[in-house]
């Protein structure tokens, strides 16, 4: 079943549906619910397989999203930072004294909130264990803190994925505010964003995906019943739907659009949302769906510098009975979500393939140019100066290094020669790479080829031009 809410090409529609069916078959996933986020809304949805028995899936079916939960926990930690409650460089034990026993090897610095958010605390990767202890009680996890967890690295030296670290963040929030991080997430993020189907406990209705495992060549129920809410839930306890997660993806990515300014929205500033999506910890060259690229970890989000798609932000989730992923192209208004109900279903591979399908069918918008109104105004002034040189205009437009780098008299002569050869110059397009630099495409009156002018502005107030070069 595939449902499209936008004007996608029939070929793209068919390719997305075929990808979902093929993934479910080849990876032995009981069901997959998927969606495409475009321009801030859920633009296409589909589903294959069954939630349970013969129950079909769709964008409103509830799945456990596992470690995708971390992005919600991180958002609250940053929101409390923005409120002035703490600094990310505070030691976790400053706010939860019982965490003072979680100490790295000799010469280790105190573990900070920043270390926990960016996966640099150094504690050993604990996925298999944590996945079976989401509902751990406070007194149980306190024994682990008191005994001192195992460390794989010195803190602040390397990437090491730690679920226990997000339990520690949850504890810090609880001690600092008197309320569980789960409550903050629900009230500050889920409710304002209208994510009404996203909860910390299994839904009471019947439209939830039963956990499955592929074993001995057949799909079997992965009982016991999914674990409930507990001390480790801040790392992976949420249940959600494709429809709800589309709101989350759109809201996070909206912060990347700075032309002219992003919508602040509820819960967390645009600046802090961008901070989540910036690479804080370098992981290395990683491979996904057959291609390799540099990757790193932000604050609870993965960041890839993909050679085909550009900057890709994502996070996956995996638990016994479930696999999930959300992925989007930063600042381009396009993303993909896939939820499955078989143990560790490889939905991260499916979402990157979904974006590849969208890209190959022309459904991915080009990277938006930088918002640079002052640069654009200066660019027009520069082209006007080249057409009709005036030393007073040049002095007002240029920073003092321009005349020192190559005298204004020589520049005046070069401009005159350019216009004599090509005729008056006309701006064809402005292509800012940032707020203060970019390329001006111009064309002469007497010929058809372009003249490229690269221009950079000075950091001083008013942004005088500090550099321009001409190639024709």
Q: Mind describing the biggest β-sheet? A: 10 strands, antiparallel
Shape: globular
According to CATH, the homologous superfamily of the largest domain is DD-peptidase/beta-lactamase superfamily
Radius of gyration: 26 Å
In total, how many beta strands? 18
Question: What's the helix count?
Answer: 16
Low-confidence stretches: none
- At CATH level 3, the topology of the largest domain is Beta-lactamase
Strand content: 15-25%
Oligomer: single chain
State the end-to-end CA separation: 54 Å
Structural class: alpha+beta
| Mean pLDDT metric | 93
Q: Give the total of domains.
A: 3
Q: Write down the CATH class of the largest domain.
A: Alpha Beta
- Annotated CATH architecture of the largest domain: 3-Layer(aba) Sandwich
Helix content: 25-40%
What report would you give on this structure?
- The chain is of the alpha+beta class and 472 residues long.
- The chain has 3 domains: 2-72 and 207-360, 3-Layer(aba) Sandwich (Beta-lactamase); 74-177, no CATH class; 373-471, Nuclear Transport Factor 2, Chain: A (Roll), CATH 3.10.450.280.
- Helices cover 34% and strands 24% of the residues.
- The chain has 16 helices and 18 strands.
- The protein has helices spanning 10-26, 70-82, 92-95, 113-117, 127-130, 138-147, 163-177, 181-190, 233-236, 242-254, 270-276, 347-360, 373-387, 391-397, 400-405, 408-422, and strands at residues 2-4, 31-38, 41-52, 55-56, 63-64, 212-215, 218-221, 239-240, 281-288, 291-297, 302-306, 310-319, 322-329, 334-340, 425-434, 437-444, 450-457, 465-471.
- The strands form 4 sheets. Strands 1, 2, 3, 4, 9, 10, 11, 12, 13 and 14 form a 10-stranded antiparallel β-sheet that branches. The protein has a 4-stranded antiparallel β-sheet with strand order 15-16-17-18.
- Strand 3 and strand 4 (55-56) form a beta hairpin.
- The chain is globular and about 80 Å long.
